[in-house]
Amino acid sequence: MNRNKYLMFLLVLLTVFNACDEGGNHTEPVIKWNNGHHSESLNFRNSEEVEFSLSMTFDADAGIKNIRISEITYNGDNNVIKIKELSEPDGYSGKDFFEYTFSKVYKKSDFTNNNSRIDLKFEISDNDGQYAYAIYSLSKLPDEEGEVTTYSVYFNIKDGSGFDVTNAIVTFNESVNVENDYLFYNILPGTYRYVISKAEYSAATGLVTVVDHDVSVDIVLEYVGQEVKNVDIYK
C-alpha cells in the first residue's frame, strides 16, 4: 500500500471513529423539581384529603426513551412496606426536554403516623441507554400544634464544574447515607455536623442547623486526582 492510500485509509478510520464517538457522546439525563425542594410535609389538620402537585422537567440530550413513576411507602422503622407503579406521563415520546406536573390526592390514612413517609420515585432512560432517577419525599405534619415535628436534610453535591457527584459517602447525625441517596429523614430541630467524602475528591465538613423547615445544603467537592484521607467527624 503506497503512502497516499495508507493516509486515505487512516482518514476513513478516523471519520468512522468520530461518528461513532459523537453518536454516544450525550450527557446523562436529568430530572429537576421546579420548586427546588426535595421533600414536603402535607397538612391534614383541616381536611382528611390534600391535593398534592409537583412540577418538574425531564432533560435527555440523547432523547427520552422511557419515564416511570412509582410510589414507595415506608413504616416508622424506615422499612419499605409497599411499592406501587403509577401511570407514566403522556407526550414525551420523541422529545429531549419534557415539562410535567405530577398531581395526586392523598388521604390522611395514607400516613400511618408522623414517622411514616411516601417516596415518589421518578425514573428516566434515554436512547443511549443511560438512566437517572430522583426521589421526592412526602410526610404528614403532626395532627396537633405542639407535637414534635421532624424534618429532612438534603445534600446537593456537585463537582467544580457543576455536575452531580455520585457515590459520595455522607456521614450525618451519626448515620451514613444509602448509596447515591443524600436525603436524611426524621431530623429533630438542632445543629448537626456532617462529613462528605469521595475517593479522588476533596472532603467537605460543616454544620447544619434545622429549625422549623426542611433544609437543603449545597456542597461542592473538587476533583484532586488522588486518594483523600478520611475526615474524623468527632474532631
Helix content: under 10%
Structural class call reads: mainly beta
Structural Rg? 22 Å
CATH superfamily label of the largest domain: Immunoglobulins
What is the N-to-C succession of helices and strands? HEEEEEEEEEEEEEEE
Given this structure, which CATH class of the largest domain is correct? Mainly Beta
Tell me, rounded to a whole number, the average pLDDT. Answer: 84
Total helical elements = 1
- First-residue to last-residue Cα separation: 69 Å
What does this molecule look like?
There is one protein chain. By secondary structure, the protein is mainly beta. It has two domains: 26-148, Immunoglobulins (Immunoglobulin-like), CATH 2.60.40.10; 150-235, Carboxypeptidase-like, regulatory domain (Immunoglobulin-like, Sandwich). Helices cover 9% and strands 47% of the residues. The chain contains one helix and 15 strands. The chain has one helix spanning 3-24, and strands at 30-33, 39-42, 49-59, 64-74, 80-86, 97-107, 117-126, 131-140, 151-159, 169-172, 175-176, 183-187, 190-197, 204-210, 215-221. The chain starts with a helix and ends in a 14-residue tail after the last strand. Mean pLDDT is 84; it is low at 19-23.
